[in-house]
Amino acid sequence: MEYFDRFIPPKGFKFAGVESGIKSKGKDLGLIYSEMPAKSAAVYTTNKMAAAPIKVSIEHQMASMPQAIIVNSGNANSATGKKGLADAYKMASVTAKKLGIEEKSVMVASTGIIGEKLPIAKIEPAINEAVHSLGVNKGYEVAEAIMTTDTVPKEASVQFEIDNQLITVSGIAKGSGMIAPDMHVPQEMPTAVPAGRQATMLAFIVTDLRANRKLLRKVIERAANLTFNSITVDGDTSTNDMCVLLANGTAGNHKVSIDDKNEELVYKAVLKVCSALAKKIVKDAEGATKFITVKVKGAQTEEDAKAIAKSIANSLLIKTAFFGQDANWGRIVAAIGYSGVDIDPLKLGLSLGEIELVKNGLPVKFASKELKEYMKRDELKMTIDLKLKKAETTVWTADLSYDYVKINAEYHT
Amino acid sequence: MEYFDRFIPPKGFKFAGVESGIKSKGKDLGLIYSEMPAKSAAVYTTNKMAAAPIKVSIEHQMASMPQAIIVNSGNANSATGKKGLADAYKMASVTAKKLGIEEKSVMVASTGIIGEKLPIAKIEPAINEAVHSLGVNKGYEVAEAIMTTDTVPKEASVQFEIDNQLITVSGIAKGSGMIAPDMHVPQEMPTAVPAGRQATMLAFIVTDLRANRKLLRKVIERAANLTFNSITVDGDTSTNDMCVLLANGTAGNHKVSIDDKNEELVYKAVLKVCSALAKKIVKDAEGATKFITVKVKGAQTEEDAKAIAKSIANSLLIKTAFFGQDANWGRIVAAIGYSGVDIDPLKLGLSLGEIELVKNGLPVKFASKELKEYMKRDELKMTIDLKLKKAETTVWTADLSYDYVKINAEYHT
Please, which residues have CB within 8 angstroms of residue B238's CB and are 6 or more apart in sequence? Predict the structure, then answer.
């Protein structure tokens, strides 16, 4: 399997990004189009205030084989009541009409400001423009069109072979603040309601793989849990988070189902793309100067490991200490203690990089000069060992800087 | 009942604060002494990494009638292993010896830096000095001696009468960062272990009331839940949080028990002192420019109301928006949505001060100029109405400023 740090178009997909004028400048409307209906699987925010486009996407994705995703930035189309919901449906129906496909085969996503009506009069002609400018090599345009506080577009691809056929899995994502995704396959339809000013995370993964829907669902749930659902910038879970996987089956391989010998290969490919995109989101976190890996091992359950890792990764005191390049391990120990997880304090181990700081719950002597040097790095890793059982997890987070405060205090609604 | 914004000594108590040299300057050792053994009740941090002095205090407070509290700032005496625990016992035994009382009648508290051994050689002579300088009117010395990142000492008192006898309930507290207390009466003894660098909250409430222990316990649990356990600065629950109530019975009233006609009066007095101290902590929050009241009403249960209020009060996006004087209600709606509480999005109401922003889940028209003016205030109040049932709660929090980041990033271990 080969990884590419850019977007390689899988067979049968076309893309476009245009300027509709929702944002004062730059691309703000993206279109992903598959020449044939695609098998799909998706996870959506569990935020109880899920926004209108989330409702429309869930409805369409579950009822049909999606063939297009229309996405805008600059306006979240939320807190706009019935009109907002009608506008989200309108985005789908206009796109469908211009493409000559069914309305239900169009998914919709939005990210941006809230409480303002979607300027649908600007969007309609822009959809027309997008449809007419669709191109195989324009994935980067979609990556640009979905940026909000993002400073760089985010793309990743992998390629591998099944049945001697080349398979491409490629992804586009956005996200910078309001990042603490907790996305799952919905059990019921959410009520459409107001959302927050979004920095939201969106991820669109497309592939020419031939696979059945059950496999795609299993793969995206597993992969999202270990990647997008394992990152946090500020602990604020958005109302518009969405991660979609479309597989249009044009690669010509035999259909991969659950328990097929290639299941693991497909999973690893999707995981690699999700992982690369999730890391890019954290590296582009609002104001961040450090990428921090929090590994918790020796836990009784994966849930325990994740609760502790998230408690650490969301701690203001730890995030500000790391911004100050200070290995304040006392704050880490405190965050473990208030995570709510039952631990044995006298078994606890803690390392930063290769430097062991705590063993059996007590501080060990370490080379403070070496630690000081380590803390200057852009990428840091801490390992917590609970020494109870074998469960483990990894969470990625960022530090908290003056610029995070600046970005979020100086933004005005 | 009369409230005083300062510390009025109840009968039979003496106080002292001295400079032991743990901190580079200023008072850092406080002593509270009752001329006779006192009935007591206390709540302690539920952080699983509870520090050594917490262990000693729980043991002594539960086994005996406390007669003294010895407290130091500048060193948390944590992450110091068996030596640290021995040092905490030593603080109690030295204090007991100098005062001529039982070791078990001395409670111990610490707040400050972690991972460094307690400089017990400096503390021993300072305890001697404190005992010799005990005075009735030196409560303010204790308030000063327990400060860490606090910028002002925190004191509050109330007076009222029972059986024509004047009763005084007076409190001293500290806290500024690492503030999200969750204190309860312990069900079992915690293991003594490392703690974090503490900004911790400590509160010592003393009264000359005559009351039985069960009443004191009921009163302090209720009062702490509505005050100290309802504040948050940064969501980081310290390992050393402690709130103690000592009642030495010298006021000469009949003994107040549970179901006594004066139970509610006593509760209100303790609640008033706790409430005043808790607000002082939030007003002195690290870097804070705003005091924010979050009221959630119409909830199905108090737990639901508190979960939503804490979700809002700990949201980085809301705290930074308020620092920027921006009423970003979308972020508030998002925080309600990810609190995990089941709500009806289409019933949700939200007001800032008297200005209604959201009704039935949809934004309402409001005077944006008026709202802009409101957001300039130092004290702000938001009211969330879930319109489900009658349960409600109030949480106090602060905004998040550049100075919070500065204070916590530039502090070096």
Answer: A334, B45, B47, B178, B179, B181, B195, B196, B198, B199, B200, B201
Tell me whether residue A151 is one of the annotated catalytic residues: no
Per-residue pLDDT of A86-122, as tens digits, reads: 999 999 999 999 999 999 999 999 998 776 789 999 9
Hey, are the CB atoms on A79 and B335 less than 8 Å from each other? no
Confidence (pTM): 0.91
- Per residue in A19-75, pLDDT (tens digit) is 999 998 999 999 999 999 999 999 998 888 888 999 999 999 999 999 999 999 998
Find the domain containing A31 and state its range. Answer: 2-283
φ, ψ (nearest 5 deg) of residue B363: -70, 145
CA distance B352 to chain A (A): 15
Candidates A330, A324, A169, A334; CA nearest to A246 is A169
Contact status of A77 with chain B (Cβ, < 8 Å) = no
Kindly report the nearest CA distance between residue B75 and chain A, in angstroms: 12
CATH number at residue A380: 3.10.20.340
Q: Domain end: A225, A249, A283, which one? A: A283
Same domain, A277 and A342: no
From residue A328, alpha-carbon distances to A323, A387, B83, B84, B115 in Å are 11, 22, 21, 19, 10
CATH number for the domain harbouring residue A34: 3.60.70.12
- Do A40 and A128 belong together in one domain? yes
Task: Tell me, yes or no, whether B246 and B359 share the same domain.
Answer: no
The answer, yes or no, to whether residue B78 has pLDDT greater than 80, is no
Q: Are B352 and B339 in contact, with CB atoms under 8 Å apart?
A: no
Distance of CA A265 to the CA centre of its chain: 21
